[in-house]
Prior knowledge:
The chain has helices at residues 3-20, 47-61, 93-107, 163-172, and strands spanning 31-39, 66-69, 84-91, 128-132, 152-158. The model has no long low-confidence stretch (mean pLDDT 87). It is built from four helices and five strands. The protein is α+β, with helices and mostly antiparallel strands. 27% of the residues are buried. The chain has a single domain (3-172), classed as Ribosomal protein L5 (50s Ribosomal Protein L5, Chain: A), CATH 3.30.1440.10.
Amino acid sequence: MSRLLEQYKAETAKELAERFGHASLLAAPRLMKICLNSRVGEANKEQKMLEEAVETLTLVSGQRAVPTKAKKSVAGFNLRKGYNVGCRVTLRGRMMYDFFDRLVNIAIPRIRDFTGMSRTSFDGGGNYSLGIDDPTIFPEVNPDNITYPMGMDITIVTSAKRDEEARALMESLGFPFRRED
């Protein structure tokens, strides 16, 4: 079992249930899933870009990434329905907690000039999104194998109904938020 999952079950769930007045530990906020997404702009012209993005996302997440296709045509972007536009992966359960642990303790501290993550990137429903410009902050990714610039979006979905509860959950699991000024 994941270290963070054990910590959540042993300590965090009880603390959050007491703090927010939940009658049951099952009502305490918890991580539901983590979605990783990468957009590859020129994937139709350069197939290697998509292959590299899929491989990188697979290395980072530990789970096979799936290519995504455009749902509709947009003339301004020279995009047609069905074109490859990126890749995605959704993590749940033990793999989600393992990824969250690596993200918080290894990858995020390797960001250049890191001062903490924004406290305002919540969506109003308890979900947090962040963007990463450089996938080489993850130790699994070899910088020599990256030939095309690639970023990724990470969305952390929680069961919390309010941002305050989600923020408390993520802080208790060690997520490095920026200090309030």
